[in-house]
Amino acid sequence: MYSLWQHGVLAVPGGAGALGHAREVLLGESAEPVQIGELSSPVPDRVLLEATWVEGRAQVRALLVLDEPEDGGGRLRWRLLALSDRAWQPSSSSPVTRLGLPEVGVCSDPAGVPMLIAPDNHVGSSGADTEAWGAQTAARLRHPDRSAGLAVVTVEAVTDVANDPSVMLPQFGWPGLLTCVIIDESARTALNHHCRETPVPERGARLFPAVCDTVPADVLQTSHLTKSGLATMVRRVLAARQDAPLPVWAGEKDIAAWIERAPAAAAAGAGVREHSEPPQPRSAPPEPGWIERERLLAEENARLRTELAQAQETIAGLRRALDAQRGPAAPAPLPPGGRHHRPQPVAVAPTSEHARFPRQGMPPAPPRHAAGNRPVTSDAFGSFGELISAARSRLKLLVIGADPDEAGALDSHPRAALLRREAWRALCTLQVYAHAKATAHAQRRRLGPELRNLLQFVSSGQEGALIGEASIKLKEPPDLAQHPVYRRRRTYPVPKTVDDSGWAFFPAHIRLGGESGVRLQFLDDTSRTGNVYIGYIGEDRSAL
To answer: Where do the record's region annotations for Disordered lie (predicted)?
Structure first.
């Protein structure tokens, strides 16, 4: 088991009722894929919440402890311990955001370092504000109880690597462990005035790790931000926290009892106590069934993709053998583009279907290819979590990396049923488009304009196109697409077969719900891997 701990202060509106307010909000957010419930505690003015969820292929169990402050105000003390059966990765969601602490109130570590998903920004402030910020930040960095790292990055460094997807992750930060702040030259000068021994280099970046995190010196600062420099900071901070001993508060009676009951607690809680025998598995609550369903779906998806790759390789080998047998005496005819294709049949009088594509002389792209690709009514999906799970199991040419939590936030939207229906129709349209293109490649047919991209596919009236062309936008204006903040918000994890860095910019989106501001962001890679990648489903993130 791999342990990850975080703690800090939560400023909650409500004054004396802050603890009860926080408890109600956190329990009210309970929904798949995060299961959250309350545990009893002998400590007065304390709330214990236990949560379980799936993080990729890992199963995570977490304990959140909220304590009422002695003064009865709205600043709650919180502690969080999460146990995973796989190592935490930079692409993993922070337990702080999984449980929704930033939505409850202003969340920070004991030193006041904010826990942000997006980067903090101190660019273009006045001289007085910049000096005050430098003094405050230096004080936070020297705080003996600081438990979150701070990555200070100059705006010039961000500009230099704006087109490098690997830089995007730490700009979002890893709430609870690392916060990223982008500064201009005046802010760098102000901070260096208070941190002369640990200056931020010009046009560079510096990591100020927490005292508890032992991070190698080679990632602390750089005057030239390399391709993976900032991503390395996140990776090293995560590795250091997983190796760090559990904090003192993990030895408190009710917290230690939870650790003892948790799966494989002897390994995860070695820094708290020694067990003479393996801990007894807890009998309640039972492991939620959705974890097993997700695991089986993932295994089935991996198996089918492997079989598809093997079949494609076999077909390619047979084609090569057939071409070798034909020899040079009977070459296939060359189209205007100069690529070989199979001989075309004798032209016939165009039917109503052929008339739609007079230039290509070929029928339209295939319709829906399986019953599972047909759209269903909104009643079939009670939540976006169910919709994403169904899409992953049925729509085999879509690789859905969209966070179900972010999409699940739309379940509270006044038009949630409409959004789920339109999201499903959009996903089915992408599946049919990818299948039509894959079929054309497999049959070695020359691709016509209707298969050039999704917009052409929909606007040409293909069967299986279930959305309007007005809802599709393939790219943004260059000044917006090249903006570092906007580009960061549209960069998502992808397989190394798509991009060696493991990240890619998703330029296209489908608008859901008319002018509701909801987007489905995707990357069309059908010409290379044959897949369409879904990076995000949720409220529009393009506002700068």
So the answer is: 268-289, 323-346, 351-370
Please give the structure tokens belonging to residue 20: 């009860």
Give 423's pLDDT tier (boundaries 50, 70, 90).
very high
pLDDT in tens, 342-371: 434 433 333 333 333 333 444 444 433 333
What kind and span of H or E run contains 46? strand 46-55
CA distances (Å), 23 to each of 45, 58, 529, in order? 12, 27, 46
State both tokens at 108.
Answer: 């920070």
The answer to whether 256 touches 16, Cβ cutoff 8 Å, is: no
Please tell me the distance from the alpha carbon of residue 431 to that of residue 394, in angstroms, as a whole number: 10
Q: Is 70 exceeded by the pLDDT of residue 540?
A: yes
**Which residues have a Cβ under 8 Å from the Cβ of 60 and sit 6 or more positions away?**
52, 53, 54, 82, 83, 84, 95, 98
Neighbours of 277 (CB within 10 A): 6
Instruction: Check: CB of residue 385 under 8 Å from CB of residue 407.
Output: yes
Supply the mean pLDDT for the chain.
76
Confidence of residue 327 (pLDDT cuts 50, 70, 90): low
* Average pLDDT over every residue of 488-496: 87
Strands 398-400 and 531-539, bridge-based pairing: parallel
Which residues, 6 or more positions from 381, have their beta carbon under 8 angstroms from its beta carbon?
387, 390, 420, 424
Alpha-helix residue ranges (DSSP H) falling in 379-443: 384-394, 404-408, 416-442
Report pLDDT digits (tens) over 222-260: 776 665 666 677 888 888 888 888 888 888 888 888 988
Contacts of 346 (CB under 8 A, 6+ apart): none
Classified as helix, coil or strand, 59 is strand
Asked if residues 184 and 124 have their Cβ atoms less than 8 Å apart, the reply is: yes
How far apart are the C-alpha atoms of 90 and 537, rounded to whole Å?
A: 21
- Residue 219: exposure state from Cβ atoms within 10 A (0-12, 13-18, ≥19): buried
Tokens found for residue 379: 């009643």
Is the distance from CB of 39 to CB of 50 less than 8 angstroms?
yes
Tokens representing 530? 């044959």
